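Input structure tokens:
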């Protein structure tokens, strides 16, 4: 897909010949709940699981009308994770727990 920022999943990974059909739509739940780790229960949980196969990823969604953004980048042997939530959230990574108070953005380096 290159440098373009898209708001939907293409039928073809290179973005050509696509008509915005939900060809790969079934993977969206996995991308949100597992790779980016956004889960809504009694409290909002953000527990990303970055993959070396996907060096850079990010998502912005609304949960209960409040924005949540999670992105990560793996470079130079480090994993950079940026998290923003308009609501209180728990962030878990590598058995470490951080509480986001709401309307807060944090950059974590592991």
């Amino acid at each position: 897909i290159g440098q373009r920022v898209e708001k939907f999943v293409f039928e073809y990974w290179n973005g050509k010949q696509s008509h915005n059909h939900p060809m790969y739509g079934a993977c969206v739940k996995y991308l949100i709940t597992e790779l980016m780790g956004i889960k809504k229960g009694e409290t909002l949980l953000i527990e990303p699981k970055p993959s070396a196969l996907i060096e850079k990823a990010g998502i912005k969604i609304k949960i209960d009308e409040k924005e949540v953004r999670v992105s990560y980048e793996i470079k130079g042997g480090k994993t950079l994770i940026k998290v923003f939530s308009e609501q209180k959230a728990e962030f878990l990574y590598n058995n470490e727990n951080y509480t986001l108070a709401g309307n807060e953005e944090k950059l974590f380096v592991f």
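Strands lie at 38-40, 44-46, 56-63, 66-75, 78-85, 89-93, 96-100, 104-109. Residues 57 and 71 are 6 Å apart (CA to CA).
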